[in-house]
Amino acid sequence: MRIATFILGILIGGAMFLQSCFAYGVGSYLETIAPEGEVSPMPDATMAVGAAILALAAMAFSLSKPNAAIWIYLLAAVAAWSAHKEGFSDMEMWAGAMVWLAGMCYWSWRELRQQRATA
Q1: All residues at 6 or more sequence positions from 42 whose CB lies less than 8 Å from its CB, including other chains
Q2: Among 46, 104, 102, which residue's Cα sits nearest to residue 75?
């Protein structure tokens, strides 16, 4: 279960990171070329990039310390939900994925705890 969580964390966290960085870059570019006083149509993706970095950090802990990964994934979910509230609509889906990965880490942690108890 830990290996599956790690692999899914790489895929989901990497996709979230790429999308967030792309949105941040495009939004910054549109702000520079927009006429004076016009608002950029892209949402501010600063919080989304932070959530993606937290997701990748949690993925790094998912093999050896799934208990720590649970809390980091939940923190990433809160950050993604905050980015959703700022106007980045895709972050709602990523927040749900972070909660799902936190649940997978919980089951990995339980499995690891049972293995240590029987050893």
Answers
A1: 23, 26, 27, 30
A2: 102
Residue 69 lies in a domain: yes
**Pair of tokens at residue 16:** 């979230």
Q: Is residue 72 part of a domain?
A: yes
Cα 114 from Cα 112, distance rounded (Å):
5
52: domain range? 2-34+45-114
Tens-place pLDDT, residues 79-100: 999 999 888 888 999 999 999 9
Number of domains in the chain: 1
Sign of CA dihedral 88, 102, 52, 5: negative
Is 40 within a domain? no
Residues 35-72: pLDDT tens digits?
777 766 667 788 999 999 999 999 999 999 999 999 99
CB 16 within 8 A of CB 94: yes
Does pTM top 0.85 for this prediction?
Answer: yes
